[in-house]
Amino acid sequence: MVTRVEQHAHEANGTKEQILLNARSLFATHGYDGTSIRQLTSSLSITPAALYYHFASKNDVLEAVAQNLYEASRELAERTENYDKSPQTLKKTLSEYYDVLALDIEVFILVYNDAAIQHSPVGKKLRQQAKMFFTYLVGDNPSVEDRMRAAGSVGIIRLSLQQVGADFAIHRSKIVERAFTVMTD
């Protein structure tokens, strides 16, 4: 038998998930700055108070939307601190980068395309992690060619993930191999 407390907790968790799904869609359509609290709540037929029960602010909603991407990106950035520059490790790292983006490419695109999100606290953290990853790829004093190779390599992964649809695993090895070729050419 489900108690009233358990039922309320389940309903509250469902509402929180609905808010996050709705926020992803609205942020993608209208941008972060172009999405109001009223929009976040009205399409779900909940009150702003119900949203504030789960999140202290619109920024907290954004942080929750980006949480999985942020955590996976942070873990990758931390791992690369201990990686060497061997070809095998580089290929492994590009594979891991592919997996991070594939985890939630829609949120990555949202962050990548929205200047307001890029300047938000979570956006700044994600940009810092991206810089750490890029520094791993190019080193501390890169040449123009090194930066171009790295940009091409990560661009192949990002753009390919945007194009392949939801079946990321089928194309993974081919895309990572191409990114690796560009990086080591």
Tell me the overall shape: elongated
Largest sheet: none
Could you tell me how far the N terminus lies from the C terminus, measured between alpha carbons in angstroms?
Answer: 63 Å
Helix content: over 70%
Number of beta-strand segments? 0
* Count of folded domains: 2
Based on secondary structure, the structural category is mainly alpha
* Main CATH class of the largest domain: Mainly Alpha
Average residue-wise pLDDT? 89
Number of helical elements: 10
Q: List segments where confidence is low: pLDDT < 50 over at least 5 consecutive residues.
A: 1-10
Strand content: under 5%
- Rounded to the nearest angstrom, the radius of gyration is 19 Å
SSE string: HHHHHHHHHH
CATH architecture group name of the largest domain:
Orthogonal Bundle
Output the CATH topology of the largest domain: Tetracycline Repressor, domain 2
Write the layout of secondary structure elements.
Blueprint lengths: L3 H27 L6 H6 L5 H7 L3 H23 L6 H17 L1 H9 L1 H4 L2 H18 L5 H20 L4 H17 L1
Helix pairs in contact: 1-4, 4-5, 4-8, 5-9, 5-10, 9-10
Walk me through this protein's architecture.
By secondary structure, this protein is an all-alpha fold. The chain is 80% helix and 0% strand. Helix 4 packs parallel to helix 8 (121-138) and helix 5 (87-103) crosses helix 9. The longest helix has 27 residues, at 4-30. The termini are far apart.
